[in-house]
Amino acid sequence: MKAVRYIETGRPPEVVDIPTPAPGPGQILVKIGGAGVCHSDLHVLDHGIGMPGPFTLGHENAGWISALGAGVTGWKEGDPVAVYGPWGCGSCHHCQTSAENYCENHASIPTFGGGLGSDGGMADYMIVPSPRLLVPLGTLDPVKAAPLSDAALTPYHAIKAALPLLTPEATVLVLGIGGLGHMAVQILKAMTSARIIAGDIDETKLEHARELGADHVFNSGSNQAADHVRDLAGPRGITVALDFVGAQSTIDLCTQVVGRGSRIAVVGLAGGTLHYAANSPPYGTDVSIPYWGSRKELMEVIALAANGRISATVEAFPLDQAVDVYQRLREGRIRGRAVLKP
Ligand code: NAD
Ligand code: ZN
Ligand code: ZN
Predict the structure, then answer these.
(1) Which residues keep their CB under 5 angstroms from ion ligand 2?
(2) CA-nearest residue, atom 30 of ligand 1
(3) Which residues line ligand 1 (CB under 6 A)?
(4) pTM greater than 0.90
(5) Separation of CA 335 and ligand 2 centre (Å)
(6) Architecture of the 2-150+293-341 domain
(7) Domain coordinates of the chain in residue numbers?
């Protein structure tokens, strides 16, 4: 079968032929319908994640069950599924509550998940090590649904934790309207009536945010960005700032515009540092560094999509265009999420 492989840090991914795997005892073989192309893969390709290659990329996957390994029950061939991405030990306290994204034993597990240390979904088929990592998709199309498992789940997890602050008179800032950010705007619209201010450095992304229902959009690269956001937010300041970039400039902007008793969630991994000094960020600010989401939250995200409340904007490409698609993502030329379709 064809697969898009991480080889080693600093090298572009390669599209190669590898044998189709067979599921061992307890495992499931999933026929991939779609594999989302996440910006995190660019960090993996450029800087590594401490996991040796080669492995197949793709940590945002959906498809259909193709074969069950010995002992797997409760599923059957052809069932449409999303693959829950962060693979924990399955038995610690967090994993027992379905939050494998915060597995206590992550340091001793030799993978972060499929596409992040283990073979992922940018291939015709993928092995999922346990049925506990599958979530039913119902009637959703796997190509449209693949981004739900990360591009939607990650902002959903960040927004859900901030819900007590997201009252109708609150103002929320969303920075970076790419794969994660364009889902964040929709999730905020579906779950809150807070006012949404969306920032990006690319006008087409701002136009996208406007189409999805953001109340205000602004170019966060401008020198007046902080003043502009403060003017829009009014005396209370930004109540919740969601940073889907994580660069020094965006973290600094969040720090400058939130009010007292607010929240900053840094989701993006662009390498910025949050500096603390007295009252900066302002007193009472919670800072969170959410990672991905729980399996229960993935079920909730899938329900939001099934109810028609959120929908990923998807550009689909064949697997053998993967190298070009990563380049387009790097240059900011993907609207919403790119999905590779075997
Ligand atoms: P993306 O490339 O689809 O979108 C990034 C967006 O940010 C683009 O619209 C781009 O124009 C914009 N942008 C870039 N620099 C900017 C700046 N200085 N100011 C404002 N906007 C800027 O990326 P994505 O797949 O949505 O991922 C976003 C980030 O989140 C990445 O760093 C990724 O690694 C990270 N991520 C984190 C988690 C987690 O669990 N913490 C999960 C998934 C992705
Ligand atoms: Zn990701
Ligand atoms: Zn665990």
Answers:
(1) 38, 40, 150
(2) 268
(3) 38-40, 43, 150, 154, 175-181, 199-202, 205, 220, 244-247, 249-250, 267-270, 290-292, 329, 332
(4) yes
(5) 16
(6) Alpha-Beta Complex (3.90)
(7) 2-150+293-341, 153-288
